[in-house]
């Protein structure tokens, strides 16, 4: 207690808090904080944010204002606090939580789904707790959000919990501001809430312990379809090689690595190495799949070889719902392969009926429940790179939390690219990037795309009259946009890559972009993908690019890197020398016909793609002729080497710094090395070294030419951590300022963000 002087003057202050402050336990936090400081007043949710009035001794009001920001709930994100001291005192007798003012939401932010918190976890593990073993336990600090919301405001009647009426015990928690479940919309218990059951062959399994039975099936090598938070998983025991192989076979997923869910960090230590930052990322409320360095199999580590063979890293996640925790608590289920519940290329499955039809043929049993999933959300995939987050897929847990960009300009809907599609709704300073949608050539993904557009527009109460789309006329997203009544802005693919990174870093001045990508529609009729751009959202110029080379069969070459290799080698050494330099793995391939169509220019568009350069080099090592998933050859060739090897490797000679980057020297050096018997490991290391040096020199030239020093790295090829990390280091070494995507993936999952800002700039210009 302080002193005994004259009583301090009373203060009446109004605070308006903006950001992610609704559906995250913010009002009870404010209530308890006000009581703690002995203040009277009120708190209420409004369309502009959380409105607070406090009144009491000036010092206490100051303490309250400071602690409001310092101690805010874990899931909240305060973006702004407007304070105003009012001239007259209010007539408050106590501190109260007032009813939400459901005016149309101009600033409503929808919270994302959040992993089970420590308190709820101890509830479900405590035999004395009334939620012991209950798989749908949640509170204001955790649980489903986006995936159960039908419309706003975020209130129980507008969620898939509407059909469950709270029992008296749950209701009193819900109404008590001192309770962790105050206004927790999905609040439930085994008396009143959703239930879980198991189905085999269309029949419910009679058992008094569903999860124990599910655990027994998994232990016996069975494939389970498990209804989760944002969709279904297909699960098998990760240590059972036969089960994993069977899953791959039935799911039609030959080679792509599978992710594993383990019970806790200690269990994870058997399979992967991780440091503190990686442990933190595994344990965040967003609970993504984290790619971690594998421990070689053997001893403690009994992970089935076919989970992620040929990869240096394994995707690991921790349980993020009570159902997952309870399942992994069963004996013998300490590590499960958990892969999206779909056939390859289709979006993740949602409802029970859909699961019976689509997953029934894959799974031996279905673990179902009756809490509806309203919105799909695949697991997010990321890793830690140089101490910062590095996304491969930004989805569950992150979407639809906005990325904050510079304010001003019209609202925009951006419909994204064709593959790895996401869409973006840009509303003032908030860019709402949707969860991962998938490849739009797939009909179900295209339906999901349309559904996501109407959902985001509906929930955010924002239907922009400006739509941004890719320049590619054949993309389904482009064709959809062209059917809408709106101002259309076509955006060049790699310009969008550049601007998406500039947007998340809130760069104000133009930057140089090294955009190393697979495929994108160029402005000159060729296929771009190895670009040096300079510009900002308003405009860009193409300063340089990789030399163009014919791509035999166009996009078909993406699945057959050997064809690309033949054409690139021809480009490097000429028709006559090709056969002398091809490795033995090409012996039975139709090299002649490929040379023929390239020579005659039949269906062989020119490309500057960096992804294809990787394909060609990989095929020339003799290890990869085909790609069973996107960029397989490039990804697996990277896995042969390490950052340390690349640092030590000697660059190939004879590649001069230039803005038109040569392809030939890379190819002839790789082919020559392979035919001299140099190991694929060393070829990979030297290729990476040479590429890093060449790109860094080109960036320096571009910087000297333009006077710009911010260098943005983006495009799908930069999912290669060695290239990304090595080039960041090399650029900094040249005194340049490299920037990479941190909140979004380097791949096409971020395209919609760039499109949105470019369209905003275009419309802003038209109006002035
Ligand atoms: Zn909780
Ligand atoms: Zn209840
Ligand atoms: Fe791209």
Question: Care to describe what's here?
Answer:
This protein has 768 residues and is α/β, with parallel strands linked by helices. The protein contains 23 helices and 31 strands. Strands 6, 7, 8, 9, 10, 11, 12, 13, 14, 15, 16 and 17 form a 12-stranded mixed β-sheet that branches. The chain is globular. 54% of the residues are buried. Residues 1-6 have low confidence and may be disordered. Bound molecules: zinc ion (2 copies) and fe (iii) ion.
Key attributes of the depicted protein:
768 residues, alpha/beta, 12-stranded mixed sheet, 6-stranded mixed sheet, 32% helix, 21% strand, globular, disordered N terminus, binds zinc ion
SSE blueprint and pairings:
Layout: E1 10-20, H1 26-36, E2 40-46, E3 49-57, H2 58-70, E4 77-85, E5 95-97, H3 118-125, H4 168-175, E6 196-200, E7 203-204, H5 210-219, E8 224-227, E9 232-237, H6 241-251, E10 260-262, H7 265-268, E11 272-273, H8 276-283, E12 289-294, E13 313-317, H9 322-328, E14 335-340, H10 352-358, E15 365-369, E16 381-385, E17 388-393, E18 403-404, E19 412-414, E20 424-427, E21 430-433, H11 443-459, E22 466-470, H12 476-482, E23 487-491, H13 493-504, E24 511-521, E25 527-535, E26 540-546, E27 549-550, H14 561-573, H15 578-581, H16 591-600, E28 606-607, H17 610-620, H18 632-639, H19 643-648, E29 660-661, H20 664-675, H21 680-706, E30 710-714, H22 721-733, E31 737-739, H23 751-767
The chain binds zinc ion (2 copies) and fe (iii) ion.
Fe (iii) ion (FE) is lined by residues 493, 497, 517, 520, 715-716, 748.
